[in-house]
Amino acid sequence: MAGGSNPPSPGRKAAIAGAVTTGAALAAGALTSVGAATYFARRVLTPDRQRPDDTQILAVADDSVTLGVNPETVSPGRYGLWLDGERGHARLGEVLELDQGSGRVRRELLGVDFGHLAGGFGRWNQYYFCSPPDRSLGLRTEYVDVLTELGTMPAWVVPAATPSHRWAILVHGRGARRHEGLRAVKPLHDSGINVIIPSYRNDLGARSGPDGRYNLGLSEWRDIEDAGLHAVQRGARELLLVGWSMGGAIVLQTLSRSWLADHVTHVVLDAPVIDWGDVLAHHARANGIPAPIGGLGRALMGRRSARRLVGVHDPVDVAKTNWVARAGELSHPILLIHSVDDEFVPVGPSLALAAARSDLVTMERWDRARHTKEWNVDPGRWERSVAEFVAT
């Protein structure tokens, strides 16, 4: 046929159909990988607003409470238990009796702070102290608003018993609350140090960042800088930074990027994120996410072209959070507290940083403590370590 082409043979038709099918499958596979990587990235960066009551309360006695067995409820130490969607709170002590066969564990009941403890479900917490410092610790507390670039953020200030130019800034972790820092107040207050416990962007009850997502410390440090400015305006000449988990990552970014670094004399890091790349790879493995998809998720966070896909205002460059690689940039004395049993932020990068900067880092290695629960397992040791460190 003039102007036409020869029709393909049956064999060529099959080859073309196979190529089209393979191409479509590859394209679909690529889209699936990008979708999975995007979901992973968004889950990492999205704040947890509310968590379910998932700890079973089986029986209550005058001096004990029986719970369903899970990795938290059998952990050694003292902990808190939110009740009835945070309308109540109880404090629990050591394990008294454990029956793995029946899935029951009985623990000391140290007190009910408010609300009603009864059978049903509650929510485990490591905070132990559930209310602001005046109610939890009996210490004079100021409720202040810290001015930030996003507006005011609520904070608690616990003044030292006598006038002092030393201030500690306590920085909680991802999805946690200011209550996380309450465990550190006593040794600092006893050391004659003023304490400020600020909130930061995307906290429950605080202002959201431009995208409403975590930036793994790469933007949150600005709110901690503003808390430090609040302290400086009130006479602070020495600043101590204390951070838990992602709060540790925020503290390290503050040391790197803020003018406040010149005022900082001591840094305490509890179960800190020293390298977000390591943490994200750990969680990808734990959740059965193939390594290439986890790696693509981390890459998408840092690509300006993928900002809308991931839902961030600015790219999140995970490489900038690797303080093992950046160890040479550090110049402040650090007390690093981390448990080898941490299931959420593996201890490896902390050990590597301590080895790389043994001139600056004092490593306090814990056993048997889950993530950010070193104080809970041995509060005496934790408070002694901090008090001795800040006294130097």
TrEMBL record:
Annotated Gene3D superfamilies: alpha/beta hydrolase
Spans traversing the lipid bilayer: 15-41
Domain of life: Bacteria
InterPro entries: AB_hydrolase_fold
Keyword terms of this UniProt record: Membrane, Transmembrane, Transmembrane helix
Protein name, per record: AB hydrolase-1 domain-containing protein
UniProt source species: Pedococcus badiiscoriae
